Every structure is written in C-alpha cells, then in structure tokens.
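=== Structure Prediction Worksheet ===
Name of assembly: unnamed complex
Input type: mixed (protein and possibly other molecules)
Chain count: two
Listed entries:
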Amino acid sequence: MKLGNLVRKFRFEHGEMTQQALANAVGVTRLTIHSIEKGKFVPSTLLALKIARFYGKPVDDIFYIDDEEDLNDEKAE
Amino acid sequence: MMKKLNNFSGIVSVLLLLLVVINSLLLSTIRSSLHMLQPAEWVGVLVAVIIIAMVLVTLFNLASLFHQFKYFKHENLLRSATFVLGFFALFLLVVGVVMLQDIGQELKAGHDSSGEWNIIFFNHLLLSIFALLMIVQFRLVRKQLKQEQEIQHIEKDEAVFLTVHQVGIFAALLGFFCMIALKMMGVPDTYMDDLFILSSVVAFLPYGLAVLYWLYIKRKEKLTEWYDEKQFLDLSRAALITLLLSILLLTGIFLMMAFHVIEASMILWFPIYLCSTLLIFSVSNHVIAHE
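=== Predicted Assembly ===
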C-alpha cells in the first residue's frame, strides 16, 4: 500500500510556486518536498498537516491511499 | 561581493598555473645542475618567493571556495572535490619545502634524493590540477551568478548538509589514495606508520572543517531542528548501511591480515577504519538524499 499525494498539483495551482517556496513555508528542505512529490518519502503526520494547512485543505484532499499500486501488484502476481 | 571575489579568484588561479610552470622549470634546472655545480643563489631565492606566492594564492582560493559554500544554495560535487584537493596540495607544498631542505643534506651525504624530487613534482602536478579546477569553477560561478540574479531565500539549508557529505567522500578517497601511494612509492617501513597517520590527518582536515562550519551555522538552532525529518531518516539509513558494510569490510581485512594474505602494520587499522566508514557513510547519505 502506498501513500499518494497531490502536492505537485496544488503547488502549480498556487501560482506555480517553487518546491523551495513550499519547503520554506512548512520548514523542511527542498529535497524533502521533491521526495514527497515523487512518492519516495512518506511525510510525518505533522508535516502532512502543515502542508494541508498551508493550502487551506483537509489532509485527505492532498494525501490518499494509492489503491492502484495494490491492483498493479496483484496483476503482476 | 561574490562577483568581485570570483573574478579575483579566476585571475589568481591563472597566476597560480603560471607560477607552477615557472617553478617546475626552475626546480628542474636546480635538479640537473646539482650534480655538476652549485646553482646560482638567485634561483633559490626566486623559488622561495614563488613558493610563498603559491601558498598565498592557494589559501586565497580555499577561502574563496569556502565563501562559495556559504553563498550558493545548491551543492556542487566539483567544488567539494576542488576544496579537498586544494587542501591536500597546500599540505604537500609545505612538505615540499621540507624536502627541498633535505635534498641539500642528502646530496652532501651522497644519498639518492629522487624520492624527494618525485614528491615535489607530484605536488606541482596537484597544484596545477587545482588551478585548472579553480579556473573551471570561476567560469561555472560566473554563469551561475548571471542565472541567479536574485538568490532565493532558503529557510532550511540542505546545501551545506550535502556538501559535508561530498567533502567526506573526497576526503576518504584521498585517505585511501595516500595509503596506496605511500605503499607503492616504497617509503622505508620506519617512516611508513608516521606518514600513514600524518596523511590521513591531512586528508581528514577538510572534512573536519566542513563539519565544524556546519556545526557553526547550526549553533543557534535546537538539536531537534538540526535536520528535517527526511534528513534524519536519510542519516539513520546511511548509519545502518555503514554499520553493516564496515563490519563486513573490516572483518575481511582482519581475516586477510590474520592469515597473512596481506601484510600491513597494526597501526594502519585506525586510518583504514576512518576512511572506510567515512566513505560508506558519506556515499550512502549522498545517494539516499537524492532519492
């Protein structure tokens, strides 16, 4: 099971803000935002809440469980 | 400020390259004339002046690189490599001065001084590579300054964090290089242990400086704020990889020494341990951070 997210989409909808600008807003490094967007790093609850609060959205509007990943795994088996 | 510093650094790097070429020619002249007659005194004085100038230029270039670490918000592998190489070249320059003094005494005693000359010329080769890398760095910085008219504000720094690991990679590689080079140069066993330790300390100095600088910029932050959560996870993963790989590697070396597959002094353990753990930790951290 994988955690999906729409951080990149929200970033572009907010005036095409840079990864660095979002990183500054939530107090992490640019590489952390980059890794979250790529799905390589699962943020803590606190960071997910900070990102959601920054965009003024509930957390589950930005972060979701990626069921397709499970389906792909089942197909592969 | 950065632009002026970079321009000056570019100019003195070209000067350094010229000084290295002139000094190499002068030293070659001295070397060939030593067997026949005493070289003219003015040649010796000129070599001394050039060496002082090379030390000053190298120090300035190292300070300029340090300033670039602070100024630019993105790490740069070439910059880190240049910093470590410059530091080592500076050390060898000082060693070269001692060697030049030794050569006179060796000659009087009728001993062969080719080993000393090799170290001196190797140092000049390193200095010329350093000067060339600084010229490349000058062009890159100029290009970067044109692109980044406004340096973006960064709340949580990642460049210094990554630079420390890059410097760690090159410092460890340099440590290994010194060990292999000393072994291959056939330095007498009586000097070997001291030279191994000394070269390892010198190889580690740039890393020590980078870590100290990182600690300096973190001094006002709470310990819990030193890393963001991904950096903390990256460090933990790198530490685990280092623990496992260093146990495997050092067990292998221990067994090879125990069964006399390789012959090495016991005092080598510490430099080998330092270099291997630093290399594994820095490489794994650098790779994981960019995932």
